[in-house]
Amino acid sequence: MFKTKQRPMQTVARKLVTNDSPKSIVSEQFRTVRTNINFSTPDKELNTLLFTSSSPGEGKSTSAANVAIVFAQEGKKVLLVDADMRKPTMHYTFHTTNTTGLSNLLTKQWSLQEVTKVTDIEDLHLITCGPIPPNPAELIGSNSMDALIRELTSQYDLVIFDAPPLLSVADAQILSNKCDGTILVVNSGVTEKESARKAKELLVSAKANILGTLLNNFVLEKDHYYYQYYGTGE
Q1: Sheet architecture: strand order including 117-118
Q2: Residues 146-170: tens digit of each pLDDT
Q3: 53, 60 in Cβ contact below 8 A?
Q4: SS3 208
Q5: Which of 38, 51, 194, 216 falls 20 to 30 Å from 165 in CA-CA distance?
Q6: Residues 6+ apart with CB under 8 A from 224
């Protein structure tokens, strides 16, 4: 299991820092996360990856988006899916619409080609949430989701899912069991230890493959060696 605490991240807000400031310290940390993910499954190809957190507001969606970008920058064909069908945000992050998306796919109203969006980032495509359904957990646990994952992994090198927080609803638990790996995002100074522990227990009970935790919003001091060695970046 990897953690990013030894090489912490600064606050990234809802910003695609890996695209806007690729030479910054934060972008370098996301590339470190990419490397850790690549090394976490040396004997198995990682095709599906899930990001979740214990509670809302911990930065899981922004982290998922930036990790998707650094994998695309590496040359992989990446699809980012907003699987948070309770409070979706990816359409805000990428400044696009959310009229159709995952919920339409799972209810067979639209085709994959019709809901997939091309982003401004080479090799990165996006599927937003779509209309919020009355039964998100049932849709995520359905045979339609299993079939969709098979279709997505046949067309993309890596599919990254942004799932709801674990302590709020069961969606992330259900989806984590269907993905090759799961990353738990923890917000430095905000996430309670007990909440993080319960979130991990939920993933374990779902038989999720927990690749590690990502410590978000850890502020580096100005005299930290990372500043001294790399400078402030862009």
Answers
A1: 2-3, 210-216, 181-187, 48-53, 158-162, 78-82, 124-127, 117-118
A2: 999 999 999 999 999 999 999 989 9
A3: yes
A4: coil
A5: 38
A6: none
